[in-house]
Amino acid sequence: MPISVLFIGDVVGKPGRAGLAAAMPELRDRYSPDLVIANGENSAGGVGITEKTAGELFECGVDVITTGNHVYKHREAYRFLDESERVIRPANYPAANPGRGHTIVERAGRRIGVINLSGSMYLTVARYPFPEADALLERLDGEVDAVICDFHCELTSEKVAMGWHLDGRAAAVLGTHTHVPTADARVLPGGTAYISDVGMTGSRAGVIGVRREQAVKAFRTQMPIRFETADEDVWVNGAVVSVRDDGLADSIEQVLTPVPG
Ligand SMILES: [Fe+2]
Ligand SMILES: [Fe+2]
User: Fold this and answer.
1) C-alpha 153 to ligand 2 mean position (Å)
2) Which of 6, 43, 83, 194 has the smallest set of CB atoms within 10 Å of its CB?
């Protein structure tokens, strides 16, 4: 029996958290997910994550939280990142940094490895993501039945390359970080579900999560501007992947859902 994995793009601030909570019943009805993964790197105040915001995502029914370049914004979360087995950060950050780069969850009798990697172009990493992905897969070999990768990455070229690099070895390579959904969701020939970016969960009325008048002013004036999280017209962006018994994907469907109410 294939299992259904719902993956939710970067949840941005309180509007994103509240929006996800409001949308989850409908998403559960529509996709009956066995596993829910959400990127939480923007969940606290639009940048970073805390134990409290992670807790809110777990309360929505999220099983695993992935992150990215904003993961260390809030110092008070470092201990939580070390202790939590269900919140992960890119594996190719310095090994001594708080947190872990992968986790294993059992759902519907299947062991799913969730891995988080960061792109190396315009983002800071300790090790390149491609050999890191190989090392992680080798480490998880025999311990998991399928692998889902959140590739938190700026460049579509690096993302597409990672899709091909893991094709036939991971159930899914799902891009995050740009907050803008791409129109290239597909299952690659080797059986890996791929999308360059799932998008974000938050206000569509802003500029990738920030109030648009502030973001436009920053670009217009090139002066420092205090950013606040946009809160109108909240959407949940993500993807649903059907994962077969052999650990590869049957299908990937993009999720672009306005929050009800
Ligand atoms: Fe983000
Ligand atoms: Fe990011």
Assistant:
1) 7
2) 83
Ligand 1 center from residue 154 Cα (angstroms):
10
Buried b vs exposed e over 2-18: b needs ≥16 C-beta within 10 Å? ebbbbbbbbbbbbbbbb
Q: Per residue in 17-26, pLDDT tens?
A: 999 999 999 9
CA dihedral 41→42→43→49, nearest 10 degrees, is 50
Is 70 labeled as catalytic in the residue annotation? yes
Mean pLDDT of 85-104: 98
For residues 172 and 188, the answer to whether their CB atoms sit within 8 Å is: no
Token pair for residue 152? 């938190």
Cα 29 to ligand 1 centre (Å)? 27
Catalytic residue among 70, 74, 165, 179: 70
Which residue carries 């990127």 as its tokens? 39
